[in-house]
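Predict the 3D structure for this chain.
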Amino acid sequence: MAAAGAMTALPASLTLRDAQAVLESLRQSFAAESGDVWRIDAAPVAQLDTSALAVLLECARMAAAARRKLQIVNAPARMSDLAHLYGVDGLLGVEAEAFEASAKLGESKPADIPVIPILR
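Done. Predicted structure below.
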């Protein structure tokens, strides 16, 4: 039985390469912990891609199937941005207080965008 306030920590890297191993580790942690809320600490995550969202969505599915709540805490800004971009921030509970895209309007200039000729 997990102690009160127990939390499962994510690793520093959660990319496609890491996803399967991380998911298996999370499944083991989920099975070992009890309580109404499964808390996952995302603070250690320094490198992530959309696979992180897939892993966390599977965690949400596991929690829902067991009638438990998933709570992701300390989500890095990039994780919150990706979750918002894909429309799953509410499902994962990683809603940003005020969403700010990484790129600001006007930062990209047309000259910075490569032109690729279209063959006709």
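The longest strand covers residues 37-41.
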